C-alpha cells in the first residue's frame, strides 16, 4: 500500500495573546488570513495547539515541525518560541514562508530573506489581498524547494554543505537515541537564537547585567537537564524549583519590558523541563 503523501502546512506563530497586540490579534491573523490562503492550495493547515496525536505533545509538534512539506512563520512579535521553531525548521532546510505585520523591525541581518507583510488594520480588502499573496507565496515556495533560487533557505544562503538531519540508527533504542541527538541540535539552535536576541536589543550591550544573568541561569538549566540520570529524583526536582525562584527574583530587578519577556520565557523553559522530567519518571 502506497504511503499517503504529507500535505500538512505547519503554522509557526504565537498562540496566546501577546504584549503590544490587541486581544485575539494572532487568532484573527490565523483564521482570516492564513487558513483561507492555505485552503486555496493543495495543503492542509495545522497549528501547534491543534496537534494532539499522542500524550507526548511536544514530540508530536517537533515531528510536524520537521516533517511538514511547507510551513508559514509569523515573525511579528519576535516571540522567542516562534524564533526557536523557525531555527529548527531552517536548520533542516525545510521550506518556509515568512510573514509579518507591517512595521515589524527586521530580526536577521540576512538581506535576501523574503517576507510577506500584512496590514495592521486588517481591513476587508487588505485581508483579501494578503490571502491571495500568501497563497501565491506558498505555491512559489513549494516550487522552489531544493533549488538554488530558494532565497528563504539560510542553509543555501550561507553555502552550508549539509542541513541538520535525524541520524539513521540500528538497534532497539534507535528512536530514543535519535530524539536525544535531535534535542542536542535543538539546544544549540535555541542558544544561538537567545544569544542573538539578548545581544542585539537596542540600547543593551553584550555585557549587560540582564544578559549575563540570563545566560548564567540558562546554562545552569542546561546542566541540570543533562544531570537527570545522575541525580536522585527528589534533589533534581528541588533544584528545578530553586532555579525557578532564582529566575523570578532576578527578573524583579529589571524594569525593561524586553528583559521581563525574556525572563518569562526562561521561566517557561524551566517549567517545561520540570514537566517533561516528571513525565519521563512516571
Features:
five-stranded parallel β-sheet, 9 helices, 2 domains, 5 strands, Rossmann fold, 282 residues, alpha/beta
Fold blueprint:
Elements: E1 8-12, H1 25-39, E2 44-47, H2 57-67, E3 70-74, H3 80-91, E4 96-101, E5 115-118, H4 124-144, H5 154-157, H6 174-199, H7 209-226, H8 233-251, H9 257-281
Parallel strand pairs: 1-2, 1-3, 3-4, 4-5
Number of strands: 5
Provide the number of structural domains.
2
Distinct helical segment count: 9
Shape estimate: globular
Can you tell me the CATH class of the largest domain?
Alpha Beta
Largest sheet: 5 strands, parallel
Assign the CATH topology of the largest domain.
Answer: Rossmann fold
Which strand order does the major sheet show?
Answer: 2-1-3-4-5
Low-confidence stretches: 157-161, 168-172, 202-206
Helix content percent band? 40-55%
Mean pLDDT: 75
Summing up helix and strand content along with how strands pair, one would put the structural category as alpha/beta
Summarize the helix and strand pattern as letters: EHEHEHEEHHHHHH
Give me the Rg, rounded.
20 Å
Q: Provide the CATH architecture of the largest domain.
A: 3-Layer(aba) Sandwich
Report a brief summary of the structure.
This protein is of the alpha/beta class.
Description:
This protein is an alpha/beta fold. It has 2 domains: 8-157, 3-Layer(aba) Sandwich (Rossmann fold); 174-281, no CATH class. It is built from 9 helices and 5 strands, in the order βαβαβαββαααααα. The chain has helices at residues 25-39, 57-67, 80-91, 124-144, 154-157, 174-199, 209-226, 233-251, 257-281, and strands at 8-12, 44-47, 70-74, 96-101, 115-118. The chain has a 5-stranded parallel sheet. α3 (80-91) packs across α6. The longest helix has 26 residues, at 174-199.
